[in-house]
Amino acid sequence: MIERRRVLSMMAGLPAWGLTARARAQTGAASPPWPSRIIRWIVPYAPGAGTDTTARILADRLSTALGQPIVVDNRGGAGGAIGTDAGAKAAPDGYTWTFGSDPPFTINPSFRKLPFDPQKDFVPVSLLARVPLVLVVNPAMPARTIPELVALARGKPGQLSVSSSGNGSSGHLAAEYFKSVTSTDMLHVPYKGQADAVSDVVAGRVDLNFSAIGNVLQFAKAGRLRILGIASSERFSGLPDVPTIAESGYPGFEISAFHGLLMPAGTPPGIVARVNEEVSKLLASPEVASRMLRLGFFPVGGTPDELERLIRIDTAKWEKLIRSTGIRAD
To answer: Which helix H or strand E contains 130, and what residues bound it?
Structure first.
C-alpha cells in the first residue's frame, strides 16, 4: 500500500508557491458561528466519476463533523474548467469548496489560457487522495507482462492502439509517457469519456488503456480485462499480484492523479485550518480509508502546504511531457 509518508517525502524541502503566502496574509480567524448554513462543494465532473465518489464519501461525514449540510454540486464540462472557474469566483467565506484534480489544476494550464489561475485564485485545504493509473489490455492480447507488451509493440510499430478519455487527459499523457520511456509507437484513440475508452478495450476494439483502478477493477475481476502493471511506487494491496511498471523494468515510472480540496483565495485561515483538521481525522479513520482503498484511491491527507507542493510538482512534470511530445488537447 502506498503510505502517506512516502507521498509526502517526495515533496519535502520544496519551496511553496504563492498560495500559502496569500493565505497567511489573511490574519482573520474563522469567526463564529461558521459554519451557520449549507456548504456547497463543487465537483467539476459528472456524477459517478472518481472525483464525485471521493467527494460523496467525505461530504456526509464532514457534514456531521461541521454541523451543517454539505451539498455536492456537479458542474462538468471543458475538462473540469467550468466548475473550477465557478469555485475560483465564489465568495471567500468558507461556504464554497472546490474539488481539485489534475486537468484543471496541473494539465490544462499547459494547453490553454484558463479563465482562472490555479496558483492565484485558490487556497489549498488538503490533499485527499492519490489515484495511480493501471495499464490494462484485452485478455485476448498475447502479452501478459509489461516486457512482453513492449516487445509486441516494438515488433508492430504503430499497430497497437491505446485509448483515452480524450486528448490531453491523464490517460493520454500516461500513454505518451509510456511510449516515450519504452521507445514504442502506438496509435492513440481519443474518446469523449473514460467509460467508452475502457469499454472498447473490453470489446477488443482497442488494445490497451491507462485507467484509474476503480474504472477497471470489476472488469479485471470478471476476466474481461487484464491488468499488466500499476503506475505507482508500490503494489496495490487489492491487487497484490500485479507488479508496478517500475519493477517491470522502468524505474521511476509513476503516474497518478490527485484528489484535493481547495477554497477561493482569501478564505480566512481559521476556516481552512478547521476543515483541514476534520478532513485529516476522516482520512485517518479505518472506515473511510478502507472504503477508499477498495476503490483504488489512496487516502493521503496532509497540510495545505503539502497540497501546494504536490500541485506544483505535477504541473511541472506534465508541462515537461507536453512540451517534449508536442501533445495537443481537444
So the answer is: strand 122-137
Locus of grid cell 461558521: 34
- Give the three-state DSSP class for 94: coil
Give residue-wise pLDDT tens across range 162-202. Answer: 999 888 888 999 999 999 999 999 999 999 888 899 999 99
DSSP codes of every residue in 181-228: HHT---EEEE-SSHHHHHHHHHTTSSSEEEEEHHHHHHHHHTTSSEEE
To the question of pTM greater than 0.70 for the whole model, the response is yes
Topology of domain 4-131+256-325 in CATH is D-Maltodextrin-Binding Protein; domain 2 (3.40.190)
Specify the DSSP class assigned to residue 116: S
pLDDT in tens, 215-236: 898 899 999 999 999 999 888 8
Q: What is the residue extent of each domain of the chain?
A: 4-131+256-325, 133-230
Grid-cell match 472557474, residue found: 85
